[in-house]
Predict the structure.
Amino acid sequence: MRSRLARTAAYLAAVVDGGTVGYRLIEHAGWWDSFYMTAITLTTVGYREVFPLTAAGQAFTVVLLVTGLGMILLAATELGRSVVEGELRQLLGQARRSRMIEHLQDHEVVCGWGRMGRAVVEELQRGHRPVVVIERNPEKVRELQATQVAVVPGDATDETVLRSAGVSRARGLVACLNDDAHNVYTILTARSLNERLFIVARAGEEGARQRLLRAGADRVVNPYHLGGLRLAHLLVKPAVVDFLEFSLGTAGQVELELEQVLIGRDNPLVGVTLREADLRRRSGIGVVALRRGERLLPNPEASTRLEAGDLLVVLGNRAQIEQFERVAVPGEEA
């Protein structure tokens, strides 16, 4: 579209230049008079000739008039087409994205697309999780639209905007706005729309953690504190950090993953001990930890009997984890 407009503008400029030079050569007029004669001819304003025209000049004027009018009409057509196509494309794209968001269920909502928000979206996309971003910066909104990421323009503290992002149907929300107060407002509004929403918040100040938790956040992360811990761990136990990065996929590795699997009420593993389940032999995965309510049991004993509602943290490659999910989650086809 831009190339067509540029090409049309170049043609029109060439006609103006040609008309100016033509009058200069044919009628021996001054440069300004030649340009002015070209301008009133192309625009058909009906003024008198700037200078008397010879027969050759009149013939040249006719050719210039026909050629110039055609170029002006072409330029007007291209300009109108670009405006209509741009607006139509924007409207159609917005309608398509709205329909896509309306059909999302159990998706993740990321509020704010700064440095942390970008990292969150990239990781969610890597895990093939449906995600919707709420962003108020128009430039970032256009960038997100260009990358085909579902985005809702607006303020994440606004209830209407949160509804548009499907918060009432979402599984989780990440509040990573730059200001702690805005994160608090976002959490309060989102929690009122969806009590089951799992909310993770970014804390910029030390005292913000408790405020964010009281507002309704399930987890709060201070990136500076977390970054400091990671630096210290890299210093004193780099092998442990390498393993965690490897298993979480943050080191570019996909062979081994940590995943969590919920043991539902109808799960065939309910009432079975880990020894009896023999998950290593059946699926090739290992149970790293078990969360039961608020209790976290790392490296659970083989005699641990599984209960409905248990959350297993398992370690294995993607194929092994998918095999385990087919066995452990009712309704999945083998």
Notes: The chain has 13 helices and ten strands. The chain has three domains: 2-99, 105-227, 254-328. Residues 147 and 209 are 33 Å apart (CA to CA). Residues 55-102 form the longest helix (48 residues).
